[in-house]
Design a protein that fits this description.
Blueprint (H helix, E strand, L loop, with lengths): L2 H66 L4 H28 L3 H30 L7 H81 L19 H46 L6 H16 L3 E8 L6 E8 L10 E2 L4 H9 L3 E3 L9 E2 L4 E2 L3 E9 L2 E10 L5 H57 L1 H6 L1 H71 L9 H31 L8 E4 L3 H16 L2 E6 L6 E4 L1 H17 L5 E8 L2 H5 L9 E9 L21 H7 L5 H11 L3 E7 L3 E10 L7 H4 L21 H13 L7 E5 L3 H13 L3 E5 L2 H9 L6 E5 L7 H10 L8 E5 L6 H8 L3 E4 L4 H13 L1
Length: 930
């Protein structure tokens, strides 16, 4: 029986018993009502009528006696009138009773009363007539006696009628009482019976239902919510609603298992990609400032082997050309002295030589037992897997890498190795180019010194010839010989000059190669920026949405997780920007623009941006500015503010209690001269940032200005950070013509002093100082444009967004080949009330536009397969109907000039990734409202 039928049957029985009980109670109450109605409205009225008749009869009798015994004429007339009125009333009362009687005895008694009263009425009429005639009471005595006898009979009959009616009323009342008592007993019995029946019905319903529900509850309680890969199933025993619940739960469990598996797979892929990108960036960072191939080989194999899980490895570099070409081992990892692998090999010699010849990687799983052993302190073991990979540059193998591991190499490790080796060839070529340039430069210097010595020798000989002019005249033959020697030496000098010219051409060629190498490095940094910013864009947008307490359906703990993810993404973005800044400074091509700035506004600016930090950490923040500091100062304001931001951020980060103070004063040029050249500056300013934090030991004060360095490992673990801030500060200070020094004592706090000159004319060699190159020149275009003062703008954007809702019912077309970006943008824009269409490349975008969709704005990614964003925007603008359609270009590969290129191709505006949601919404609001 189904759950619904059980409920209907149970409640139907309950209603049936209640209906029977209610019907009986209504029937009994109706009987009681009839009895009470008869008592009150029938019997009581009849008794009351009989009493009134008797009272009227007695009154008439008294009036007759009064009229017959000494009443005067007027009183007699009045009494007779009363008697007549009473007679009429009695007759009407009798008539009323005769019509309402329903008992035979009552009718009989009333009939007797009527007969007796009629006889009495006749006697009464005779008596009244004689009284009217004036007869005395003696003459009326016989008639009065007859009247009294008849009156007695009438009263007796009336009393008998009244007593009968009262008896009937008592019997009816007794019956009603018995009926009430019977009803009470039946109601008690019916209620007890109903309770029993209802209880049995309810118990039957509950037991039949709870048994199935308990089986469902038991299965649900056994679910391990931390592991949804295997969810228990509910056995389906019935075909009712509970059975449907069990089936639905089983279907849901199956869906959850599938979703959980997909989520695990996706998380694993993201983790693998992050693992690869992090280590590729680590290797790329290691390449910096390496000018020797042997150093590169040693650092590379030492860094790569642990990342690959290798226990032993070797690095070979190509030497020679043609028949003399060979690969020589320059470095090894965990090798056993001189026996760790071959010292050198040629193309085709052994498996490694064959791999170099074929330019292909090879993985060996079946290792012979007599193969090179991995040596430990306890003994030697055979490797389980070997990978041999070539390093290719311009379709030529320039190096070979061989790694061996005690475990089989995973697919992730092989992918990581391929990505690392793709850039290693460029790095090896760059380093070898630098080494060749240095060698040629040294040779050129040696030849120059030799020519200078010869020139000095010629000059000395010329002086001797002039001093001995007289002697030369007498020694003409000797002079001729000397002239011949001079001519010979001149010819030698010309030949050496030609050799120097050839060396100069070689140097120019090497310089071109170095420039090409710098270009490759720039492209690598830009591509790295794109590959890191693209997934970071999705992370920042989605985590920002999830952490919003007004819109998110997550609990507080999950919102905190989302905020941590967003904060970590912002930290990673900062790290990327710092690395790009450091790279631009390193190659000497960071753009600086000297312009005037107002130093009088600096204290207010610092208070506005760091007061909240001081308040949060409960420490004092003090700013002192001397009166002799000039208000107008000439420098690059953006880099100047970035230096102060880094110094103050470090001060607050490493200060737990006490204070952070900033002292701004005019610097003493003699004091500055001991640190840096002071020529060319109109005046100098000294800015001291002092804190009461952890301090820095003397031996670590030079180390902290190097990239990726902090005081020690404990500091990095406790306070976090990348160690790039102070390195960037000093490099930026050098670009501005200034310097940064530190004075600190461990445990007592630190004082960082920033010396900066006012340069109205900038640097004289401005072409060399600020020549901007395309490498990542625009990487910080959007983020670093305003290091201070963005808070107010953000608040205004929030207020404007609350005042207007321009996104409702608007359709946006998102064109991007990255599904993560599409997912993030789709959810973010849907939240604003927009309709979303998506396309993965330019062809799909054009197809959607041709279908006539009512599209209000297009978000266009630039780097896409097939048809990129530039060509797509150009084709859209070629159609006249789309001339005014807003197109916003989005890209993570922010190269210098990309903005102008996008606008020229047809973009209405340009936003670089990773996107800031408020910035994107602000741009959309502008174009949708206009």
């Amino acid at each position: 029986m189904g759950f619904k039928k059980k409920q209907m049957l149970g409640f139907g029985l309950i209603l049936l018993f209640l209906a029977i009980l209610l019907s009986f109670m209504m029937f009994t109450l109706n009987n009681l009502k009839s009895s009470m109605t008869e008592i009150v409205e029938n019997r009581y009225d009849k008794v009351q009528a009989s009493m009134e008749i008797r009272q009227l009869f007695s009154r008439s009798d008294r009036e007759i006696l009064f009229a017959a015994n000494g009443a005067n004429k007027e009183e007699r007339a009045e009494s007779l009138e009363i008697i007549n009125e009473n007679h009429s009333l009695i007759e009407s009362k009798i008539a009323g009773l005769s019509g309402s009687l329903n008992k035979a005895k009552a009718k009989q008694l009333l009939k007797e009363f009527e007969t007796q009263y009629a006889s009495y009425s006749i006697t009464e009429a005779e008596l009244i007539q004689k009284i009217k005639s004036g007869n005395s009471s003696d003459n009326l005595s016989s008639l009065m006696d007859d009247q009294r006898e008849k009156r007695t009979k009438v009263i007796s009959t009336m009393d008998e009628f009244k007593d009968y009616q009262e008896g009937v009323m008592k019997d009816t009342l007794s019956n009603s009482k018995q009926t009430y008592e019977d009803m009470i007993g039946f109601v008690i019995f019916a209620v007890i019976l109903s309770i029993l029946v209802i209880s049995v019905t309810v118990v039957w319903m509950i037991r039949s239902t709870s048994k199935d529900l308990q089986s469902i509850t038991k299965v649900i309680k056994n679910i391990d919510f931390k592991n949804l890969s295997v969810i228990p199933r509910i056995p389906v025993r019935t075909t009712d609603e509970i059975g449907d619940i069990a089936k639905s739960f089983n279907d849901m469990a199956e869906s959850l298992e599938v979703y959980n598996q997909k989520e695990k797979d996706f998380t694993e892929k993201i983790s693998e990609q992050n693992w690869i990108q992090t280590r590729v960036a680590d290797i790329a960072t290691m390449y910096q400032r390496i000018v020797d191939v042997e150093v590169l080989a040693d650092r590379f194999i030492t860094r790569l082997a642990p990342m690959m899980g290798a226990s032993i490895g070797a690095f070979y570099v190509k030497r020679g050309e043609g028949v003399d070409m060979r690969f020589v081992k320059l470095a090894s990892f965990a090798g056993d002295g001189e026996d760790s692998g071959r010292r050198e090999f040629r193309l085709g010699e052994g498996l490694i030589g064959q791999c170099a010849l074929e330019k292909k990687s090879k993985v060996i799983e079946d290792i012979p037992e007599d193969y090179q052993l991995v040596t430990t302190g306890l003994g030697e073991v055979n490797p389980k897997s070997i990978v041999i990979a070539p390093v290719v540059f311009e379709d030529e193998v320039v190096a070979m890498v061989e790694l061996a591991s005690l475990e089989a190499f995973t697919k992730l490790q092989k992918t990581f190795l391929n990505q690392v080796l793709d850039t290693l060839g460029i790095t090896i070529n760059n380093v070898e180019g630098r080494m060749e340039i240095e060698r040629l430069l040294k040779e050129s210097q040696a030849q120059t010194e030799e020519l200078q010595a010869q020139s000095e020798e010629l000059q000395s000989q010329s002086e001797e010839m002039q001093a001995q002019s007289e002697e030369l005249q007498t020694q003409a033959e000797e002079l001729r010989m000397i002239n011949e020697q001079l001519e010979e030496r001149n010819r030698e000098t010309e030949e050496k000059s030609k050799e120097l010219q050839v060396a100069k051409l070689n140097l120019e060629k090497q310089a071109e190669e170095l420039k090409l190498s710098s270009k490759y490095k720039s492209e690598f940094m830009a591509n790295m920026s794109h590959e890191l910013r693209t997934p970071l864009n999705s992370i920042l947008i989605l985590s920002e949405m999830l952490s919003d307490p007004n819109d998110s359906k997550l609990n507080e703990e999950q919102q905190e997780f989302a905020r941590v993810i967003n904060s970590s993404g912002q930290d990673l973005l900062t790290l990327i920007n710092d690395i790009l800044d450091l790279s631009k400074v390193e190659v000497g091509k960071l753009e600086v623009v000297f312009d005037e700035m107002n130093l009088s506004e600096l204290p207010e600016l610092l208070h506005r941006n760091f007061d909240h930090v001081a308040k949060k950490k409960n420490i004092d923040f003090i700013i002192e500015k001397s009166k002799n500091v000039p208000d107008i100062f000439f420098t690059d304001e953006q880099r100047f503010q970035q230096i102060l931001k880094n110094l103050l951020s470090n001060a607050f980060k490493f200060t737990e209690k006490g204070s952070v103070s900033v002292q701004i004063k005019k610097a003493d040029e003699e004091n500055v001269a001991q640190w840096i050249q002071t020529k060319g500056a109109s005046n100098w300013v000294e800015i001291k940032v002092t804190d009461t934090g952890i301090g820095i030991s003397k031996e670590k004060q030079k180390l902290i200005f190097e990239a990726f360095q902090q005081g020690d490992g404990a500091t990095m673990r406790k306070y976090g950070g990348t160690g790039l801030g102070l390195s960037i500060c000093r490099e930026f200070a050098k670009l501005l013509g200034g310097w940064v020094i530190v004075d600190s004592e461990e445990g007592q706090g630190s004082t960082f002093t920033f010396f900066i000159p006012s340069m109205p004319e900038g640097f004289k060699n401005v072409d060399e100082a600020i020549a901007a190159s395309p490498e990542v020149a625009a990487a910080n275009h959007d983020d670093s444009a305003a290091p201070f003062g963005d808070q107010d703008a953000g608040m205004m954007d929030e207020e404007d967004r609350d005042k207007a809702k321009p996104f409702c019912n608007k359709t946006v077309l998102v064109v991007d080949d990255d599904h993560r970006n599409i997912f993030a943008l789709k959810n973010a824009l849907k939240h604003e009330g927009m309709e979303i269409l998506t396309a993965e490349n330019g062809f799909e975008c054009l197809e959607l536009l041709e279908k006539g969709n009512n599209i209000d704005v297009i978000l266009m990614d630039i780097m896409m397969p097939g048809m990129d964003g530039y060509e797509t925007m150009t084709r859209i603008r070629e159609q006249s109907k789309f001339e005014d359609l807003p197109i916003i270009a989005l890209t993570a590969k922010a190269m210098k000039g990309d903005r102008e290129k996008c606008l020229k191709a047809g973009a209405s505006d340009y936003v670089s990734k990773p996107l800031k949601l408020d910035q994107l919404l602000s741009v959309l609001r502008v174009w949708l409202t206009n």
